[in-house]
Amino acid sequence: MATSASSPHATGFPAEGRCSYYVEKKKRFCRMVVAAGKRFCGEHAGAAEEEDARKRILCPLDPKHTVYEDQLAKHLKKCNSREKPKPDFYIQDINAGLKDETEIPEQLV
To answer: What functional role does this protein have (predicted)?
Structure first.
């Protein structure tokens, strides 16, 4: 299979408007779109520490994504992984049955 000369790996740099982070495991550049004037996507922004002094950390609610350390308090209020308030009519374990096995009559078992 021939490699085209216009592929990002053959030219040594990523496609226009795409992340410049080289994913070693996949042997290709990240294909996520970058913001205007940036070289890296939000996920790989930590690789651009020379460009940006802000530090990204894992979200304490969901470690599948990262947030800027200085915006953590704001993020925790709007993160989709936060604990949502239960409705007024919700009762914990209402249909769980008996809690103590000694209360089960022997005839029914």
So the answer is: tRNA methylase which 2'-O-methylates cytidine(4) in tRNA(Pro) and tRNA(Gly)(GCC), and adenosine(4) in tRNA(His).
Tens of pLDDT, residue by residue over 7-64, are 445 557 777 888 888 888 888 888 888 888 888 887 777 665 555 577 888 999 988 9
Q: Residues 81-94, buried b or exposed e (16+ Cβ, 10 A)? A: eeeeeeeeeeeeee
Instruction: Enter the pTM of the model.
Output: 0.41
Six-digit token string for 102: 């000694």
On whether the CB atoms of residues 39 and 20 are closer than 8 A, the answer is yes
Measured in degrees and rounded to the nearest 5, phi and psi for residue 21 equal -75, 125
